[in-house]
Automatic annotation (TrEMBL):
Domain of life, source organism: Bacteria
Upper taxonomic lineage: Bacteria, Bacillati, Chloroflexota, Candidatus Thermofontia, Candidatus Thermofonsia Clade 3
Pfam families named in the record: NifU_N (PF01592)
Molecular function GO labels: iron ion binding; iron-sulfur cluster binding
Protein name as annotated: SUF system NifU family Fe-S cluster assembly protein
GO biological process, one term: iron-sulfur cluster assembly
Record-linked InterPro entries: NIF_FeS_clus_asmbl_NifU_N (IPR002871)
Gene3D superfamilies: 3.90.1010.10
Span of domain NIF system FeS cluster assembly NifU N-terminal: 5-126
Species of the source: Candidatus Thermofonsia Clade 3 bacterium
Length: 130
């Protein structure tokens, strides 16, 4: 079973979903992990339905290990279409479940970098748009 997850990780690394830049994004945020050198930037285009604001599209760019890049690809595939107010409630375990294989403590930080970038970007946007 772990081989299937490893193939899934490799597929997201070699063929990332939502990879690129969104022109005129509503949210753009970038962070890095100085200990390992991983860097991720996430752009988000928002939409609205009634009084709900949701993630209409998201894209990422960055450099780093297979885990950080694949986990961000999996995360964005999972959050497009979700209301913005639900993003802060995503637990780190959700991302680790998407990755699907046991990770060392250092690799957990790699896997969660995209979630950190997404959540921080949305929090900063929320502060500017109460």
């Amino acid at each position: 079973m772990q081989d299937l997850y490893r193939e899934h990780i490799l597929d997201h690394y070699e063929n990332p979903r939502h990879h690129g830049v969104i022109e005129h994004a509503d949210i753009s945020h970038e962070e890095s992990n100085p200990l390992c050198g991983d860097r991720i930037r996430i752009d988000v285009k928002l939409g609205s339905a009634g009084d709900r604001v949701y993630i209409a599209d998201a894209a990422f760019t960055g450099d780093g290990c297979i885990i950080s890049q694949a986990a961000t690809s999996m995360l964005l595939e999972d959050v497009v279409g979700k209301p913005v107010d639900e993003i802060d409630q995503i637990e780190p375990q959700r991302v680790l479940d998407l990755v699907g294989v046991p990770l060392t403590a250092a690799r957990v930080k790699c896997a969660l970098l995209g979630l950190k970038v997404l959540k921080t970007g949305i929090k900063l946007w929320t502060l500017r748009h109460p």
